[in-house]
Design goal:
6 strands; two-stranded parallel ribbon; alpha+beta; C8orf32 fold; 132 residues; single chain
Length: 132
């Protein structure tokens, strides 16, 4: 399933946003980890599997990151929750830091709120994960 999703939604930043649905990402043919996970979850659930969205970080040696990472987990009776990092084509291991799980991105959004008034803001992040 992961291979098919990557074949239809190539990894490309800036093509989608947090409001992009799995269907829209398929139509665009591009997206990021969030889009890969949403597509994976839609199919897994359609096939009858319990599946959830996972948000967290991935250790990338000596690389500053600008965003969190997302992967999926599917519940397998004999194993429990099994992770699938669709974007990287691997199963999450000890390099992954899980922050939150939910039905989809809306359940694990790291920052939300309401602002009144005019003007614009920008949030800039720098993330560095290291092992100790």
């Amino acid at each position: 399933l992961s291979v098919r999703i990557l074949a239809n939604i190539t990894y490309s930043k800036g093509k989608t946003n947090i409001s992009t649905t799995a269907e829209m990402a398929m139509e665009i043919g591009a997206g990021v980890c969030q889009d890969h996970v949403h597509a994976f979850l839609a199919v897994a659930r359609l096939l009858g599997f319990s599946a959830r969205y996972v948000s967290g970080y991935l250790l990338m040696q000596d690389k500053v990151q600008d965003a969190s990472h997302a992967w999926a987990e599917v519940h397998v009776d004999s194993l429990g929750w099994v992770g699938f990092d669709i974007s990287n084509g691997i199963s999450p291991d000890d390099r992954y830091v899980k922050l939150a799980t939910g039905f989809d991105y809306a359940d694990v959004i790291p920052l939300s709120g309401v602002r009144f008034g005019s003007g614009e803001e920008q949030i800039a992040t720098r993330i560095m994960i290291s092992q100790q």
